[in-house]
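Sequence, C-alpha cells passed on for absentees:
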Amino acid sequence: MFRSVATATALLLAILVLAGLVRAEPYESKAPRAFMVDAETGAVLYSRNADEPFPPASLAKLMTMEVVFDALKNGRVALDETFFVSEYAWRTGGAPSGTATMFAAVKSSVPLEALIKGAIVQSANDACIIIAEGMAGSEENFAQTMTERARAVGLEESTFVNPTGLPAEGQKVTAREMTLLARHLWREYPEYYGYFSQPDFEWNGIFQRNRNPLLPLEIGADGLGTGFAEASGYAITASATRQRRRVFVTLGGLTSEDERVEEARKIIDWGMRAFAKRALFAAGEAIGEVRVYGGEKSRLAVRAAESLSVLVPLGEPGRLSARIVYQGPVPAPVEEGAEVGTLQIWLGDTLSQEAPLYAAESVAKGTLRQRAVGAMGELLIGWMR
C-alpha cells in the first residue's frame, strides 16, 4: 500500500466559483508566534511558528480552568464548595507576593465560584494555588493533572509545572495548543465560558477590572487571558465573535502591552473580514474517487459524513487547494460507510481543515480475472512509484 493523493477537482471548482468578489489585503502579524482558527469549522486561518514552545506565564491558568471545569462537569466538585486559604497560598500568590491576586485572606475559606472568578477576571495567583491545594493537595499534584488533561484533550506538547504560570523549569505551551485549548473550553463548557467575559470582580473589599485588555474595545472580544514572561515577552489567547462567526487566536513574543493589544485587534479584524464561509457539500454527497485494488470496479466514490463548509480567503481563492489522501489502492471488498481516507484543505502551505472520508458505495471482490488484471496494473504502477 502507498500513501495516495487525489486532487478533489469538483471541490476546487466549487471554491473558485463561490469565492467572494471583495479583495482582502494579505496580512502579516508582528507576533513571532501566532495561530488563529475559525471556531465553528476549526479551519486554520493564520499560522506562524505555531509549534514553537514558550513559557506560558498566566496563560497556564486556562489549563487550570479546564481541570476545574472538567471536575464541575463530572460532579467531583461544586461551585458552592469552599476551599481553605493556606499560608503558602497567601504568601506565594496573595497580598504579600506582589503578583496578580484576588486578596483572599489567609486561613479563610473561599467558595470555588469566587476562586474561578478571581483566577479568570483578575488572573489571581492565590486563587489558582488555593484551588490546586483544595482539589489535589498540592500544586505539584494539580500540575500533574493539568498535563494529563492536556494530553486527554489533544495537546501533545504543553506541559505544566504549576497552576499559576509563575516561572518554573519545564513549563511550556505553544500558540497552536493554547488556541485549541481555548476552542475546547468554549465547546465543552458553555455554562462556564461566560466567566471569561465578566468585566470585573470584587473580593475582600477590593474591586478589580478584568485584565483582558480586549474586552473594552468593542471588537467582539469575550475572553480569554494574557501572559508575560521575561524570556518570551507578551502573549495573549483571545476569542471574539461577530455576526455569527467566532475566532480564537494566540499571539506570543510581543514587545509591549500596547503592541499586544494592537496586534490582537488587527488579527481579529482581519480574521473576521478576510474570509467567507462557503458550504461545499451536503452530508453524504460524493466528493471524489479513490482507486480500488482487487475489486469488481477500480474506482470508489467517497463522501464526508457531515456537511462540509470551508473558509475562503476573499479575492484569493487560489491560495486554497484540496486533496484526498488515503492508503491506496484500497483493497476490496469495501463496505459502504467504511472510512477510507481524509480530505485535506490547504491554505497556502498551511493545512487548514481535515475531514474523514467514507466509502459512498460497496465494492465486492472481483473475479479471478479482474484481480489478476488489477494485480498486474498495481505492479506496473508500483514500479513507476
Observations:
- The chain is about 30% helix and 30% strand.
- The first strand starts at residue 2 and ends at 7.
